[in-house]
Design goal:
Elements (H helix, E strand, L loop, with lengths): L1 H13 L7 H15 L1 H13 L1 H10 L6 H16 L7 H15 L2
Helix pairs in contact: 1-2, 2-3, 3-4
Protein name: Transmembrane protein (PGPGW)
Organism: Brevundimonas intermedia
Keywords: Membrane, Transmembrane, Transmembrane helix
């Protein structure tokens, strides 16, 4: 648990720097705390009932074989949806263009 707390503190120190460096570090620290603390597990279950859409990405990352790329892609799409209006969203269109390109390439 102490290791998890140290990682969270490191993430908080990194957070003011440019880029998203602090957020993933804090998430890893919270997962370490969750694995070792009964109190944290109870709080996590309460949060899961209260806000299932917020907790689901953490649950996916804590599996035995986590899928990092799909989780981060889904979160990027959610963040884009919150920040930008529909005509300015670029990630979905970029993904579709890449799919078309690779389909043509591997035919």
């Amino acid at each position: 648990m102490v290791g998890g707390l140290l990682v969270v503190l490191l993430g908080i120190l990194i957070a003011p720097l440019p880029g998203p460096g602090g957020v993933p570090v804090i998430a890893v620290g919270l997962m370490l705390i969750l694995k070792s603390s009964f109190w944290a597990k109870r709080q996590f279950i309460r949060a899961q009932y209260a806000r299932p859409k917020w907790v689901y990405p953490f649950r996916r990352l804590m599996r035995k074989k986590p899928e990092f790329a799909p989780v981060f892609w889904q979160q990027a799409l959610r963040a884009e949806k919150v920040v930008l209006k529909r005509p300015r969203r670029r990630l979905t269109r970029a993904r579709k263009k890449l799919r078309r390109y690779f389909r043509k390439l591997f035919r």
